[in-house]
Amino acid sequence: QAVLAQESPRLRRTSVALHRLPFRVDTASAAMARAWQRAILALGLGFAVAVASLGSARWGLLFTATPLPPPPAAPLALSVTAALAEPVPLTEAAAPRGNGAMLVGVLLTATLVLGAASRARDGRRLGSVTRYATLPHLTKEDFEEIRFEGWSGNTRDLPFTFWPGQKGHSWNTEYYRAPRGPARMCLSHITDPKAKFRVMDFYKSPLADLKPAGIKQVSSYMLQQGEYVQGATFSTFTRPKRGSWMEKEKGDKLPAQDDQGYSEYVTKKESLAAVAPKQGVSMDRDFVADRSALTLLLNYVSETFSRTMFNKQQTSASIDLVKISKVPGSKGLYLERIFDMRNVTAEYVPYRGAWKKSEMSNGGNFFPALYRKCAKEEPDEKWMSITGYWQTAGSRAGRPDLRFRFVEYSLGGLDLLVRTRSHLVTSDGKSVELQHRNNRYRQNSTIFELYTSMLLGGTDMTGLAFHRSGKLTDFNEISIEGLVEKQPLIVEAANRRFGRLVDLLSRVKEAMADVAEGEEYVLQWQKGNLVLGKYELAPAAEEKEKEKEMA
């Protein structure tokens, strides 16, 4: 118990091999082993220092009785220097002294080897004590399988790693919770694809040029308290002050994982096919798409999406990216994004600390508070945090209405009508999109990402806010011209990736040529490849067996 009490402040969250746990810990023998180990190592170190400083020849004096001749006379001032610098002459009678020095070396080597072996053996034994001390991090099911000598099986008999009465902790709290597996991000796995694409198929695609002058806004709309309103009204942009605080939102929740719940979740997100015909513009386009769907496919052909999924350990998961269907009475196709990056990290590792526990968010964002700071007509409502500072209220003061714009342009010979998010406008009527990022991860905001996103959506300015846990540290007003001035090579790099995107869209359009109206298809990511298949719920295994029996 004394060893456990000593080790408990340094418990590690590691898995424990239950069959290797000791049944008895002999604290006296462990302490004695440590004492002998330190003494032997100290003795060996002393011998090593002495031999290195005085020389092995002088140690021969300890193993002979023959006196040495007196040294030659020398001035007193030089006697000490000469004695240390000049070698001592040896006689034939003193020759065996070299064997004594060799014996000292052998003994020294043996001492060091025995000391290292003792330390390794003691370390393995103390390692078992450490594993014994990690028991409070096991689950209740693991505790039921262990019965130590002198332990009743009750966790109260083990040293605790929390103060009794601490909020959010108890003896029934799981001290270690394994991360969840990959979330469901597809309706069903496509086994019989209509077409299959690889990134290497687009390496030699020709460049496609897109300039801001060729982008034109055609309409806008907003969802005011959930109601569709044609012709969105925007607040005027104002630059927020540095050093001010923003309230954080609650973290994202996973969608339903069952078949019916996940299908309803995806259906609820779809809105492009319902609002696009209401914009009063021609639908006879090659593609009517979400800007987010284009940027997602652009990330795939740029080889960044697959790398991110591999790093997030999503290799075994099939992921629906973009749903595709035909525009009624037109040659065009709808491209609506299904994939949501927030589902990859939602409810992954919940916060289990004690700091600001009553305001924990588990990975929330700051967008409602940032919008309220940047919108001139919105009241900057303040709330005091639990630590005593005033912060701009988030969604508790009301969520901002969703606003969208439709823009049209031609990309690589394809005629596109694109829907994009928009938040504010400047005093001279330019569109503004707001983004925020933690200052510790500012390297994740790249020039390529900002340039392509603004260009594909026809955004005039991006307001990028950097913060530290909600405290605004910097705000950047980014324009396409400013990005090009900062890095002129971004134009050629983006045009090369745009060419790959055009090639992918052209192949998708060709594969969808013989599809009837009303049928839905999806581009699904499978271990780095992109497959095109029907968007439908695959029959259960039992139904497949029945079909085989009937056949």
Provide a compact summary of the structure.
The protein has 551 residues and is α+β, with helices and mostly antiparallel strands.
Structure notes:
The chain has 551 residues and is an alpha+beta fold. The protein contains 15 helices and 17 strands. The strands form three sheets. It has a ten-stranded mixed sheet. Strands 4-12-13-14-15 form a five-stranded mixed sheet. It has a two-stranded antiparallel ribbon with strand order 8-9. Residues 1-29, 56-68, 71-98, 122-140 and 143-149 have low confidence and may be disordered.
How many helices? The count is 15
Instruction: Bin the strand percentage.
Output: 15-25%
Helix content: 25-40%
Strand order of the largest sheet: 1-17-16-6-7-5-11-10-2-3
Number of beta strands: 17
| Classification by helices and strands | alpha+beta
Stretches where pLDDT falls below 50 for ≥5 residues?
A: 1-29, 56-68, 71-98, 122-140, 143-149
Radius of gyration over all CA atoms, rounded? 36 Å
Average per-residue pLDDT, rounded, comes to 76
- Overall shape: it is globular
Head-to-tail CA distance between termini: 68 Å
Sheet with most strands: 10 strands, mixed
